[in-house]
Task: structure prediction
Amino acid sequence: PTTTAARSARAPTGWRSGRRASTSSSSTTTTLKLVACWLFAGLAAAGMGVEFCLVYFGAEQLRAIGLTATTATFAMSSHFLGLLVGRLLGATATRRPGRTVPLLHVSLVTTTGGFLLFWLGTAPMLVVLGLFVAGLGIANLYPLSVALSLGAADGHEDRANSLSQLLGGLVVITAPYLLGTVADRFGLTTAFAIEPVLIAACLALLLAGLRAGSHAGGADERVQARDLALSEACSDACEARQVEYDHEMHAALVQPAVREQVLKLAAIRGLGALAFLVKAFEDLVALPTAVLLAG
Result:
């Protein structure tokens, strides 16, 4: 029986190898989540580059189509109005879960349409309208991207937020500088071709991040399913071995010598319990006498 009990305490065949496979899958899931976090942080940074290129050089482009400096500066307020309205609409739309990714797609489409109106338009009204529409789209690129990055951080939200800020700061410094350098050589209209590149980068980073996140989610489900299967296998094996142990114990008790020893042990334990009860009864009877003598 002792040997069987020792066997029942051991894990079933394949448990340790299954645990190693589970640990490997968990490591893969963590890596995929980290990749998704970085990609979404890059998306936030690229969105900031799209925004600040327009903020820095939008008025110059308006002057290039014939507006005065004062009018161009005032017309830029349409872009900021679009940012404000877009943030308000985004805050309302994201009150229900599951709308972050669709809203990001809509934001990228809106940004592209608005920028094309601003970039290719020749009539001042169309250009100003393009600034407003672009502001509507750009408004939610950064907050929604950061939200996705934090969601993929898996307990490291502070690092994900810092990463988004760091990458965003680098892009805000380099993208407008690059645009201005190209504008000095080839003209501002040509230099604004950087914006479609940044928008395309946003889309690519979004799709890549979602792909990595979906793979991480699938790996999580596989790890949970494997752990559950291994746990059930171990439980079934332990139950089977316990039944085997009970059968062996029963077979041993049927033997006369073993049964006689068990009965003697039970008798000894029974006499010990009886002596304990007698001693307790004597103490209980002696208690009132001791109280009277003490009085």
Q: What stands out?
A: The radius of gyration is 37 Å. Residues 1-15, 218-225 have pLDDT under 50 and may be disordered. The longest helix spans residues 194-254.
